[in-house]
Write a structure and sequence with these properties.
The protein is of the alpha+beta class. It has eleven helices and 28 strands. It has three domains: 237 residues, Beta Barrel (Thrombin, subunit H), CATH 2.40.10.120; 95 residues, Pdz3 Domain, CATH 2.30.42.10; 105 residues, Roll (Pdz3 Domain). Helix content is 20%, strand content 31%.
Length: 505
């Protein structure tokens, strides 16, 4: 290596050593310098809150503090339940029993829900589906102060999905009950309960609708007049409180409409006025004894109104009358339209049910009815519930009885979108009818199809004229034109009669 290169390399190494020494000297014992000034956080509100907004905020806080102690957590250990008691896996209306919304395996199971304290000595209202089927010592109630109690069932009411349970305690905080007849769509409400294991959760929303009938309670005798709310409620809220801005109970949360099993903005609560009546009866006698007219009913829509001769859609149609019931004895007939009860207008089936089911057997209901273009009054003495023998399912009929004898031709009635044939003698004998035509097919998406005319039903009347054969049916609608409504009285294979209004094509 040339001598000059060696000297240059040595010079670079020397400079590196000197530069490193300087760095070490400068950073040894380095001191952190602090600024004399400190950050002052800005805590001044950027706006002055509107007094009305502050009042509402304060109200929510006060309601939560006051009302939450009157809501309890309910844990239930129950035995196996039959399939009829469980909600269907694909049913959009999900009960709030259990944490996951899944169909349980057979065997003992645990579930949870909520309840509302209604007396200082331990009566609690909740949902029937929360505590139904609980085993001995299977219900545990936990208060907000962490005290735990075993509870016993006082009474269950499947028709309203309400139940009353009792714990042995004194001086409990009690919920104030409001008046659900006075609430209006758009009012603020709070939902309080125990969703998804998150105990004593408070959510806010408004009353979204009133008088909802969503078809989830106990069969044909169900009483549904739900308050709809968008306050967030989920599995575990069932049996909890829906309260107004005065902190009063206006409903017991019972169900949601959802495609997922969880909150999607549509919750339903049982109105507190129904809760009052039912809980009083359950505490008094352990069951609810109601008066019944003894009729099957349907809300009147525009098509039905035209067929009946009403000036507009109003009232409740009597589909059938139970033999020997109060309505039968008072002279009610299938095809009558009930316009009012005790002077109160009724324009939906559930409105009529709520009024009548607040009465007891022996009470008289004054009905205003519309029949054949005339309005009349009927006094109906209500009777206790009776199972109509016609509602029991008959033995399955042979296929030839449903479709008729082989070789019998069908008549197509295009204006109704159906094909029919004279009812076979074997079918008439089983249904105890003298005539009628059997529906053999229904055009898909025709008005008959959409309004519930099904293959296998027998048409026994059309426009209140008896139908013995296909010719009678054609004659009964011959003076009608497209767009007119036709009333059909049909009977299904179980012997149940109902009236269907169909718009002609």
């Amino acid at each position: 290596m040339p001598k000059k290169s060696i000297i240059a390399a040595g010079f670079v190494v020397l400079l590196s050593i000197i530069f490193g020494a300087v760095l070490i000297a400068n950073f040894s014992g380095v001191k952190v310098v602090h600024s004399d000034s400190q950050i002052e956080f800005n805590t001044t509100p950027p706006i002055t809150i509107n007094p009305e907004v502050k009042s509402l905020n304060d109200a929510f806080v006060e309601i939560s503090k006051t009302v939450t102690p009157t809501v309890v957590y309910i844990q239930v250990k129950s035995g196996p339940k039959d399939n009829q008691q469980q909600p269907e896996g694909n049913d959009p209306f999900k009960f709030f029993f259990g944490p996951d919304g899944q169909m349980p395996d057979p065997g003992p199971e645990m579930g949870s829900g909520s309840g509302v304290i209604i007396s200082r000595d331990g009566y609690i209202v909740t949902n029937n589906h929360v505590v139904r089927g609980a085993g001995d010592h299977g219900i545990k109630v936990v208060l907000t102060d962490k005290r735990e109690f075993d509870a016993k069932v006082i009474g269950l009411d499947e028709n309203t999905d309400l139940a009353v349970i009792k714990i042995e305690a004194n001086d409990l905080p009690v919920m104030s009950l409001g008046n659900s007849d006075n609430i209006q769509v758009g009012e603020w409400v709070l939902a309080i309960g125990n969703p998804l294991g998150l105990n004593y959760t408070v959510t806010a929303g408004i009353i979204s609708a009133l008088g909802r009938n969503i078809g989830i309670n106990g069969g044909g005798y169900a009483i549904e007049n739900f308050i709809q709310t968008d306050a967030a409620i989920n599995p575990g809220n069932s049996g909890g409180a829906l309260v107004n801005v005065q902190g009063q109970l206006v409903g017991i949360n019972s169900a949601i409409k959802t495609n997922t099993g969880y909150y999607q903005g549509y919750g339903f609560a049982i109105p507190v006025n129904i809760v009052k009546n039912v809980t009083e009866e359950l505490i008094k006698s352990g069951k609810v004894v109601r008066g019944y007219i003894g009729v099957q009913i349907q809300t009147v829509d525009e098509t039905m109104a035209k067929g009946l001769g009403l000036d507009k859609a109003k009232g409740v149609l009597v589909q059938s009358v139970q033999k020997g019931g109060g309505g039968d004895e008072a002279g009610l007939q299938a095809g009558d339209v009930i316009l009012s009860v005790d002077g109160r207008e009724v324009n939906a089936s559930n409105e009529l049910q709520v009024i009548i089911n607040s009465k007891r057997p022996g009470d008289v209901a004054k009905l205003t009815i519309f029949r054949d273009g005339k309005t009349m009054e009927k006094d109906v003495t209500l009777k206790p519930r009776q199972e109509d023998s016609n509602q029991t399912t008959m033995n399955n009929m042979q296929k030839k009885d449903e479709t008729g004898n082989k070789g019998v031709s069908s008549t197509t009635i295009k204006t109704l979108g159906i094909s029919v044939q004279d009812a076979p003698s074997s079918l008439k004998e089983k249904l105890n009818i003298s005539g009628g035509v059997l529906v053999t097919s229904v055009d898909k998406f025709s008005d008959s199809f959409l309004r519930g005319v099904q293959e296998g039903v027998v048409i026994i009347e059309a426009n209140k004229k008896k139908v013995n054969d296909s010719a009678d049916l054609e004659s009964a609608i011959s003076d009608k034109k497209s767009g007119d409504s036709v009333l059909l009285k049909v009977m299904d294979k179980s012997g149940t009669e109902r009236i269907i209004a169909v718009k002609l094509q």
